[in-house]
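Q: Structure for this?
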Amino acid sequence: MKTGILNSNYQLLAESYLFSQIAEKVSRFQTAHSQTRIIRLGIGDVTRPIVPTVIDAMHRAVDEMASSETFRGYGPEQGYLFLREAIAQGEYAPRGVELSPDEIFVSDGSKCDVANFQELFSDRVRIAIPDPVYPVYLDSNVMAGRAGALQSDGHYDNIVYLSANAENDFQLDPPHCPVALIYLCSPNNPTGTVLSRETLTRFVRYAQENGAIILFDAAYANYIQDDALVHTIYEIEGAKECAVEFRSFSKSAGFTGVRCAFTVVPRQMEMLRKMWLRRQTTKFNGVNYIVQRGAAAVYSPEGAAETREVIASYMRNAALIRESLQACGATVYGGKDAPYIWWKLPRETDSFQFFDTLLENCAVVGTPGGGFGPQGKHYFRLTAFGDPARTKLAMERIAAQKKILF
Amino acid sequence: MKTGILNSNYQLLAESYLFSQIAEKVSRFQTAHSQTRIIRLGIGDVTRPIVPTVIDAMHRAVDEMASSETFRGYGPEQGYLFLREAIAQGEYAPRGVELSPDEIFVSDGSKCDVANFQELFSDRVRIAIPDPVYPVYLDSNVMAGRAGALQSDGHYDNIVYLSANAENDFQLDPPHCPVALIYLCSPNNPTGTVLSRETLTRFVRYAQENGAIILFDAAYANYIQDDALVHTIYEIEGAKECAVEFRSFSKSAGFTGVRCAFTVVPRQMEMLRKMWLRRQTTKFNGVNYIVQRGAAAVYSPEGAAETREVIASYMRNAALIRESLQACGATVYGGKDAPYIWWKLPRETDSFQFFDTLLENCAVVGTPGGGFGPQGKHYFRLTAFGDPARTKLAMERIAAQKKILF
């Protein structure tokens, strides 16, 4: 093979994917300390089982696949109508947002959708990305050649970064220059903070004035506890003309290992909607039928109640983490309307160094804030997805090392 | 939104995706003739249910998801080791090909993999594509900007087409100029013909001499009845240095609605293997755990025996279609080592016109050969995936219209 035929943009990627790297470090620590039971509050993966109503729906769907009369082969690439209707009714109608099933595209994961959506745009457009944020927005654009060169401060030349930190209360400012695409994530991964109605309105106005598109990742929307906060960007007037929304069952229904998500492209952006439809019909073949039946069951009265209780249990973990760290004197953000706690490290400690300190002294795994962007370098992310008893134990281990960690 | 920010390559796409178009035509016909029962031998979708051993494995996996102790969240993006090992042992070892699990990447479908793999290459490379062939290779490259302008003969400027037709017995010639990427499909969709060991050896030599990569789609490998034919390109000496292979459970185990496939990138192309790993870890989140357990069960002795019987039943359909058409005087190809029959239409009939004729006179749906490339314009594809009784009925309807159709 001649290496010149390869996509050279891959060489611009900063380093190996954050979570893979962490997995390796943890694995090495576990090998060296085989007696120690590590508590993982790092990767944002759920731990509670799928709720009974969804399990029942999946068993029934498996049985359907076992008989000629009910077997399902290829489904619609966009997802079965029963699921798209359930999503419109279950997620959007209660927030006063009317969507038709044609505007909803079911997929096997928000990671795929947010990574693939940039394909619909010219490779010369300028994009804005929050700092810190879920790394996939940036990495997928680096691979596509939109990022330019990596600078020594961790920023890429051609990316417009939108800083979010304690100083601006995590309320980003719209770009000060014209960009074509803006990624937003609210509730934010990793900071656990939520963009206010006012902030979102400013972004929608910016998009309208600049002919830009907002790619709004709301994978954690169902964790918002405060009903007055914006749950979907379509609650903002004018958003249907300029915003695409990504949602997922991963965190709302424990589907990280089941794989189901959806993307909304409103009819008000018909050219974009048709392009995404064409992209998905050409490069994707729909989601497993069993999974779609399971996802639809999330919106049944029983499924919804069971799912709410799972989320409530994670949010009790979040409160415990928040309060435990605060009791030790830490400054923390998030954890009220999101399953992430964003710990501001004392004395500007480097987050990667802190990862090692926490692992070695407490056998607790978190995620270095620096992995989400330069603005995260003095922060540390803990997740509320653990088992309650073990989350409590982690907080006890951390409190016991108060002198080192705070 | 400013339309200038969009990926303008989408405008170069010839027309709406072949199978979506056909679905619309059939739907209109059904509405107009509500009493007629259409027989679908068009889209390559299976109809027989998932075999019992796989169903059992999926039920057990659903139950695992219902309990904290056995619940699985995010799995490895590359697929669980148990499945990759089963694939290496079940698909490759019997053909004398040794693969390590690290060389196998599990995904939710070959359509995704063959459509996404081109991302690893420069957008300036020249590619070669068989004509006719599964449209995804071409369309995904048009979207990526590698195809150039569409000409009046149905060809794109920058694509090197490799003609396959009755005249060369469907044995393609390697390109006569340097290209970086070559798509091959064997058994071929749509022609149902298999590339000979000699032809594949010539392509591997070409790739070695030109530093090119072969993207080998073998989604129908398990339909090959003649044991002497090449089942995997790695049976050809030197192929591990230049060929990526795409395989699927869709047709081998009836997984079109279940979604599981895999791609092989050998260690001999370590840079490419690492790039694909990076691509998948960044833009994909692994396949449903339940599905992976189901796929692994295909390789159990019981699962393998049940699956073989399903394939045998489809191949009986293939023989029936072949022989029925031949008895009417038709010239047909394929159908011996693949579930597709490639019908050479009489008097150079246009394949799209023939689609309408067949639908209107027999209420039988096939696929116009022209949808797979200009070389297919006087051919027509029928699939062996139908119910046996209905396939027989379709052949009777066709025989009854002998005067019109032959």
